[in-house]
Amino acid sequence: MADKKLVVVALGHKALGATLPEQKVAVAETAKAIADLVETGANIVITHSNSDQVGMIHSAMNEFAQNHPEYTACPMSVCSAMSQGYIGYDLQNAIRAELITRGIYKPVSTVLTQVMVDPYDEAFYEPSKVIGRVMTKEEADLEEKKGNFVTEVEGGYRRIVASPKPKEIIELDTVKALLADDQIVICCGGGGIPVMEQGVDLRGASAVIEKDLVSGLLAIDLAADALMILTSVDAVALNYRKDNEKILSRIDVKQARSYMEENQFERGKMLPKFEAAIDFVELGTNRRAIITSVPRCKAAYLGKAGTEIVKTL
Fold first, then answer.
1. Coil, strand or helix at 311
2. I want to staple 5 with a disulfide (CB 3.0 to 4.6 A). Which of 105, 225, 273, 274 is the partner?
3. How far from chain centre, in Å, is Cα 190?
4. What is the pLDDT of residue 3?
């Protein structure tokens, strides 16, 4: 492994789909992009979004609890764990099948991953992540009585939860051990299961961690060579969807930071991708962060597509 590049690949929701059938189709295409990287000689660690999947699971489990009073509602941390298993199951099987088709034997493992958050993170006082199905006013009132936060949306109300910053990846040593065994590792799904330390115990938090930020933290902790963030666009654009739109190809961290300060990127969408990319690139040498789409993954890794952020040009 020492002579190979280590690449952390962060998959957005486009790489996974939103429903069970969509996910099957989407991960088959994503597996081809991962296999392309493997064929270049890279070692791969995969993180992924879970916004649609965890919302589906949260809604289903709450509906179940409402119809069966003997069961309690499912905490967000448990829903997150379920989504990691479900997405990891489809991803690792799709990647395994694609590699075998190409004559490559390389084990693929999913690690149920917990991520420590700070109980005093300001995000807990200002929840911002919308989850779950649309609710009626009566259902929203019941959620608020439980101590949960809701927000009004088109057609009703939805629950919102905090999005604290990731502090520590609990299963990091497990990921390192699997990498040392030359495996592809899927971890930190949905930003990881948010937990807080209480004595020797880890307690789940009612929160959703930003996937891109934990991907950046993972890439830093693993001293990766590259962080690839696969999203819905082939490359990042300034003045997005305006007459003066400009595509970014290769920029340095100073330029990237200046664009952030100009409020070019939307909070919760492109902004955390740039935050993760800058932190990762700045804390090492010869590191690069790449933002592109699944179809352009290999070309972007080879420097022929996408937006690349480096320390200095």
1. coil
2. 225
3. 5
4. 63
